[in-house]
Design a protein that fits this description.
The protein has about 300 residues and is α+β, with helices and mostly antiparallel strands. The chain folds into 2 domains: about 160 residues, PhyR, sigma-like (SL) domain (Butyryl-CoA Dehydrogenase, subunit A, domain 3, Up-down Bundle); about 140 residues, Nuclear Transport Factor 2, Chain: A, CATH 3.10.450.50. Helix content is about 55%, strand content about 15%. Strands 2-1-6-5-4-3 form a 6-stranded mixed sheet. The longest helix has 25 residues.
């Protein structure tokens, strides 16, 4: 095969590695493009194209992550990964690991790791690379990689819930949630929420958002049951869609532009967290982005007129 054909065959894997390291669709795409430039510019063909490209995209992503972390320390409000609607890389033998690792909850746990720990954990635990491949990718000895993996596992296991819902249970619960949301059914919403549920939004200071997380089933249900009917009254629509492998939805303004995404985390038959991404900088890969401030003003105007 030609270089282009070799690269395109591996592009889904490269993007999936980069996205999990970076938590950003746009930065992952840039890392993949830089990987292509390095591959195209190499004078000789590597013995293993997969090993060469995986190592290249990993090292590029680690470098980007190190600089991105400084920016995230100055980020306004909670930081969430850019929403991913579908993972281009599929491996039936590792489907569980791949699905779990792309969830918002898992990506936020990965933020606790150092860039090297994050890369080693992902390559070994999620993508099933051998320690020799992991070592070559991150430029460390196999012994050092084993130590990095032990530390990474400890951090990840400490933050993971012990029980998760199966896919069908999640979808049934999500359908009930969005039906209640559409109807403004506060009681129906509250029944679906865990007692300690939290509602958190990532606006990055560039979109209207809550000043802080809303905690507790009663508070979250009341807020959702009050706000979303008003959005629907001004022709905001939503479509259920998996977001980072979890049940969620994409909300759009009356012109069909993306307003925000919403992802549900389900545990033991209840919704334990609701995460929304409103920052327009994180939504552009999904299509034209709505003016969230204009939507907010329209909702406030509609409420004043109604009152």
């Amino acid at each position: 095969m030609s270089k282009v054909e070799d690269f395109e065959e591996l592009r889904p894997l490269l993007f999936s590695i980069a996205y999990r390291i970076l938590g950003s669709v746009s930065e992952a795409e840039d890392a993949v493009q830089e990987t292509w430039l390095r591959f195209d510019g190499s004078a000789t063909r590597p013995t293993s194209t997969r090993a060469f490209l995986s190592a290249a995209v990993t090292r590029i992503s680690i470098d980007v992550l190190r600089s991105a972390r400084a920016r995230r320390e100055e980020y306004v409000g909670p930081w969430f990964p850019e929403p991913l609607l579908s993972d281009p890389y599929q491996d039936p033998a590792r489907s569980v690991e791949l699905a779990d690792s792309v969830s918002m909850a898992a990506l936020l746990l990965l933020e606790r790791l150092s860039p090297l720990e994050r890369a080693v954990f992902l390559l070994r635990e999620v993508f099933g690379f051998g320690f020799d491949e992991v070592a070559a990718a991150v430029g460390r000895s196999e012994a050092a990689c084993r130590q990095l993996l032990v530390r990474a596992r400890r951090h990840m296991e400490a933050g993971r819930p012990r029980f998760t819902a199966d896919g069908q249970e999640r979808q049934v619960l999500a359908t009930r949630f969005f039906d209640a949301l559409k109807d403004g059914d506060v009681g129906g919403l509250q029944q679906l929420l865990a007692a300690n549920v939290e509602l958190v939004g990532d606006g990055g200071g560039k979109a209207p958002q809550l000043a802080k997380a809303v905690m507790g089933a009663e508070n979250v249900a009341r807020l959702l049951g009050t706000v979303f009917p008003w959005l629907l009254r001004i022709d905001v629509t939503f479509e259920q869609h998996e977001v980072n492998g979890q049940p969620g939805a994409i909300f759009r303004d009356r012109d069909g532009k993306v307003l925000h995404t919403l992802a549900l985390e389900v545990l033991d038959g209840q919704i334990r967290s609701i995460r929304t991404v409103l920052n327009p900088d994180k939504l552009g890969h999904l299509g034209p982005v709505a003016d969230a401030w204009a939507v907010d003003r329209e909702v406030k105007l509609a409420r004043r007129q109604r009152n």
